[in-house]
Design brief:
Layout (H helix, E strand, L loop, with lengths): L9 E2 L4 E2 L10 E6 L6 E5 L9 H4 L6 H10 L22
Antiparallel strand pairs: 1-2, 3-4
């Protein structure tokens, strides 16, 4: 609750008016302030001075076959890796 006899931002716990009120925030904006100004939450502003590359904005145009090829033959993939099924014995061929 706020007391009409006290100025805005008055800390009733400490009986003090809280600090600087007239200032501009360059990189953050105030998202929430509690009634007694004890809790203040800020959020970061979006950067207006940063150049956004066209590559990041456009969707990739790779085909499905390229994606599946990269998935199977990409970095860190062992080709012709033996597949092991748990709980079964390896069958030995006798000729």
């Amino acid at each position: 609750y706020t007391d009409s006899a006290q100025p805005s931002g008055f800390d009733r716990t400490r009986s003090v008016e809280i600090g600087h009120k007239n200032f501009d925030l360059e990189h953050v904006e105030e998202a929430y302030t509690s009634a007694n100004w004890i809790v203040r939450i800020y959020r970061v502003k979006k950067l207006s001075n940063r150049f956004q590359a066209k590559d990041a904005l456009e969707k990739s145009t790779s085909s499905l076959s390229e994606e599946s090829f990269e998935k199977n033959h990409g970095k860190g993939v062992i080709l012709n890796k033996p597949h092991v099924k748990k709980g079964t014995k390896k069958s030995i061929r006798r000729t």
